[in-house]
Design goal:
alpha/beta, single chain, globular, 21 strands, 16 helices, Rossmann fold
Length: 453
Amino acid sequence: MTPRHIHFIGIGGIGVSGIAQLAIKHGHVVSGCDLKSSAITQKLSQMGAKISIGHEASHVAGADLVVYSSAIRQENPEMEEARRRGVPTKRRAEFLSDLMADKTVVTVTGAHGKTTTSSLAAKLLLTAGLRPTVAVGGILREDGDNMKFGDSPFFVAEADESDGTFLCYTPTYSIITNIDREHLDHYGTYEHLVEAFEVFVGQTKPEGCVIYFQEDPVLDMIVSRSGVRAVTYGFSPEADFYPLNISLARCRISFDCATGSEVLGPVVMDLAGRHNIANALAVVALGRRLGLDFKVIQKALEGFKGVERRFQVKYETTELSVVDDYAHHPTEIAATIEAARLCARNRVVVVFQPHRFTRTKLLLDMFPGSFEKSDYLVVTDIYGAGEDPLEGVSAQGLADRVRSATRLSVDYVSREKVVEHLKGRIQKDDLVLFLGAGDITRLSDEFAKSLQK
């Protein structure tokens, strides 16, 4: 790819920031803007990117290409200026696809678990000495980054299905974790979402394979009728890779990994929850398809330190724990609360920030059941993620719906009052779990900091 000036709109976002770093590594001149300064934008500036705060038409000057995230609207002044100047624009995934040209690509997609699974896949290839390029949707705890620039043919990427841009990729190995009723604001109907996954499955290269969770019936149907080469994982011996002797101890999982009648060996990981066993099995399947020795796979899984905002412990004493997690869909919320229940010594207190008005409206009836295993729920203000408010959709309304449909103690608390509210309600040995895909991580930091005073 010939070096040129590339401007990134929304450069502080987790997805765009990673490919901006890759662009710098490829020798491009990089500029970018975001609404506010952050650790991410500061790091990019140190790497040589020209960072601007705010969105102005003048930022596009001199750019040969403008790359933007799905959160950027077409009426953004920099998008409008790029069109006026005749500067080509590309979505984040389209540019990432360009970077993947001529690579052996491993993608991970699915409604839930793709960030952890893609990070595990990256850890596996790195441990095996395969020197991959990596672009995932979370910050790896072991080195504080979401990308790596490798010098081998391998490329590991998280493929985002939320806006349909995962269809930009033609991977060699496709890990698909599951399909759920998510992102219907983009797809319109569940049927259209399923159709998009059908197309994606068919784009896997013939020399590779699809690796998927067999116990998802819709996913199993799609892959089975596609005719593509496939490898399955799940909790049943009917899957190609499955676990035996599962142990779900406090914030640690262990199991014996089996395939057919053969027990490959034990796996122990410092992760919480049954869902992470499935994530690990996907990566075992990938490793075996790549011809890796199981001892290498064991070493990678057991050395994995996790991803920021995936059951991340922010504060812990003998009397209280504070955990931050990205879960925002009802399925993810239920799985994360179940994991928290295994770690908690007393109550699980949940603070939930709904993500987007459209999602809150579409999934309103699914939310109550997802919180049932918690002991006390605080719902705070909806994080709009650039959306305009919808009439009749509110955090108070969600709190009322959960309260009326369950036996839970539920309160709506405005964002600025959450920390003080919690300090008056927590009990000895509680686990306080902050959930959401917005900026609720800052609230978890504020609460943890307040406990240290």
